From TrEMBL:
<keyword id="KW-0964">Secreted</keyword>
<dbReference type="InterPro" id="IPR039809">
    <property type="entry name" value="Chemokine_b/g/d"/>
</dbReference>
<dbReference type="Pfam" id="PF00048">
    <property type="entry name" value="IL8"/>
</dbReference>
<feature type="signal peptide">
    <location>
        <begin position="1"/>
        <end position="23"/>
    </location>
</feature>
<keyword id="KW-1015">Disulfide bond</keyword>
<dbReference type="GO" id="GO:0006955">
    <property type="term" value="P:immune response"/>
</dbReference>
<dbReference type="InterPro" id="IPR036048">
    <property type="entry name" value="Interleukin_8-like_sf"/>
</dbReference>
<keyword id="KW-0202">Cytokine</keyword>
<feature type="domain" description="Chemokine interleukin-8-like">
    <location>
        <begin position="29"/>
        <end position="87"/>
    </location>
</feature>
<dbReference type="InterPro" id="IPR000827">
    <property type="entry name" value="Chemokine_CC_CS"/>
</dbReference>
<comment type="function">
    <text>Monokine with inflammatory and chemokinetic properties. Binds to CCR1, CCR4 and CCR5. One of the major HIV-suppressive factors produced by CD8+ T-cells. Recombinant MIP-1-alpha induces a dose-dependent inhibition of different strains of HIV-1, HIV-2, and simian immunodeficiency virus (SIV).</text>
</comment>
<keyword id="KW-0145">Chemotaxis</keyword>
<comment type="similarity">
    <text>Belongs to the intercrine beta (chemokine CC) family.</text>
</comment>
<dbReference type="InterPro" id="IPR001811">
    <property type="entry name" value="Chemokine_IL8-like_dom"/>
</dbReference>
<keyword id="KW-0732">Signal</keyword>
<dbReference type="GO" id="GO:0005615">
    <property type="term" value="C:extracellular space"/>
</dbReference>
<dbReference type="GO" id="GO:0008009">
    <property type="term" value="F:chemokine activity"/>
</dbReference>
Amino acid sequence: MAAPRLALSVFVLMLAAVMLTEGMRGTGPKKCCFRFNENQLPKERVVGYTKTSQQCPIPAVMLKTVAGRQLCVRPSATWVKDIITYLEAKALPGKTSNL
């Protein structure tokens, strides 16, 4: 009779430990940039972009290239703004970007 109680107790303790460690992870950003590509890319080589989370310590844009690579770049760079404008105009013909 003691063995099932012991097994149940161990199971409950393990479950509590797993839930506690999962809860401590939080819901932080999935990707942040800490190193940046400073070399200008031709806009024809870029197929998409995403902005990193506002929870990241440094604002960044991740450019996706035709080769499938993702490069971190600074959103304040003029050439990055030009690429974003180009991509948005290509996606929505006749509309202009807010950047």
